[in-house]
Specification:
The protein is of the alpha+beta class. Helix content is 50%, strand content 16%. The protein is elongated and about 195 Å long.
Length: 433
């Protein structure tokens, strides 16, 4: 029966004969081999694409205000100038082989220092509330209120350490402007926590937050060291620029000492005030100082004007030369020749008077020489003539003359001559004389 069925199956039209077992294994191996070959080809393509993507991810851009350091396994890569990348597009090995650190070298950062200011409420800080005077504590609280120690008066640098000084306090606010000028030193010597950079942040985003405590401490140290050498007048009015330059110099020296790579652009004293508890006393002191300075200025102006009127611009030089033993007589004469004003006028009058006296004396000498022969012949007559001429000269130049008649028993007449008895009567002019 089974043989008959097999025979019938063989004789069915359109039906191919079944393959053998060996032939079936060969077909399966070929299919598997083809699938593996195709899989490997796809895997190669994927690997090539991944390699290309991996290498392409090494392109990094450095901004125009930045410089960058390349860290290879945590160490700075390169030698000399090649250790720092400038602005532009750069290729480095992708992470985790290389890592690029961008540092904003051109960015100037402002940092306010309020640690020397007195304690304020939020309303006082924001300037809110009614325009009324805030209640001032009776005493300064050193725990809450910040302040600087200053000298009460200027000291001679040669004896300042020996004689000591009284001190005052002042409240002040400062502002520091800085930038990073040496990225490598900054990265090596100033700690910045790279592990806590949030997604989307770069190295520059966390710089200020990390170095602010260090800078606040160093600025405070420089301020305390510098300001103690000045008085409250220096800090408040007279030498503000000198004080700020002193603080800037000390701060830069401290930053250079630790090789921070930070450059101090400027230090500004934005606000300063004396203690509020003694405001009235300081206001009175300032008023007195201003009045004193005004009086001194007016006195100096008056002295200069008086000297200029008296002797001209050369008056001070001549005064100093007269009290200086090293000045030669020729130099003094040169200054005398430059005199102007009333002094020059007085000197001219004195010289004219001297000339007049000398000429008059010469004329008298000539006159006496002329009458000498007559005097030798008739001395009494010549003497009487000289006497009468003198009486005539005196009487002619007298403004008022009184002749008193002689009384009984008197000898001769009495002449009384009052010269300019009445101030309203002017003396005769030279022409009238």
């Amino acid at each position: 029966m089974a043989d008959q069925k097999r025979q019938n199956n063989k004789n069915l039209p359109g039906q191919s004969p079944k393959p053998r077992a060996g032939e079936q294994l060969d077909a399966a191996g070929k299919s598997l081999s083809e699938a593996l070959r195709l899989s490997f080809a796809i895997l190669k393509v994927i690997m090539v694409v991944l390699v290309v993507i991996f290498l392409a991810s090494g392109f990094r851009t450095v901004g125009s205000d930045e410089q960058a350091l390349v860290l290879r396994f945590g160490k700075i890569r390169g030698v000399g100038e090649g250790r720092i990348l400038g602005p532009g597009l750069h290729w480095v090995f992708p992470y985790p082989i290389d890592d690029i650190v961008r540092i904003p070298v051109q960015k100037k950062v402002n940092l306010s220092i309020d640690s020397f200011w007195y304690s304020q409420t939020s309303a006082e800080i924001l300037g809110e509330g009614p325009k009324r005077r805030m209640r001032v504590p009776e005493q300064l609280n050193p725990v809450k209120d910040g302040y600087c120690i200053i000298r009460s008066e200027r000291q001679d640098q040669t004896t300042a350490d020996l004689i000591g000084s009284d001190y005052n306090i002042v409240h002040c606010k400062w502002q520091l402007t800085y930038k990073i000028d040496d990225p490598e030193r900054f990265f090596q010597n100033i700690y910045v926590d790279l592990e806590n950079i949030a997604p989307g942040q770069n190295y520059a985003d966390v710089i200020s937050e990390n170095i602010t405590p260090l800078l606040e401490y160093m600025v405070a140290d420089a301020v305390v060291t510098a300001v103690v050498n000045y008085t409250i007048d220096d800090v408040m009015f007279e030498q503000v620029a000198r004080v700020t330059q002193h603080v800037k110099k000390l701060l830069q020296e401290k930053l250079d000492e630790i090789e921070s790579g930070i450059q101090v652009v400027s230090v500004q004293l934005t606000d300063r005030v004396w203690p509020r508890q003694v405001d009235e006393a300081f206001q009175a002191s300032i008023k007195a100082s201003q009045e004193s300075q005004k009086a001194i200025s007016e006195a100096r102006t008056y002295a200069e004007n008086t000297l200029n009127e008296a002797a001209g611009p050369v008056a001070m030089q001549l005064y100093a030369a007269l009290h200086d033993g090293t000045i030669t007589e020729e130099q003094k004469e040169f200054l005398w020749a430059q005199l102007a004003g009333e002094a020059a006028e007085k000197i001219a009058q004195a010289r004219a008077y001297r000339t007049k006296v000398v000429e008059s004396a010469k004329a008298n000498v000539e006159y006496l020489h002329e009458i000498l022969p007559e005097y030798r012949k008739r001395p009494r007559l010549v003497t009487q003539k000289i006497y009468l001429d003198a009486i005539e000269y005196v009487l002619n130049n007298a403004a008022e003359k009184f002749i008193v008649q002689p009384t009984e028993g008197s000898k001769g007449r009495e002449f009384r001559i009052i010269i300019n008895r009445n101030p309203t009567i002017k003396p005769k002019s030279e022409k009238e004389k």
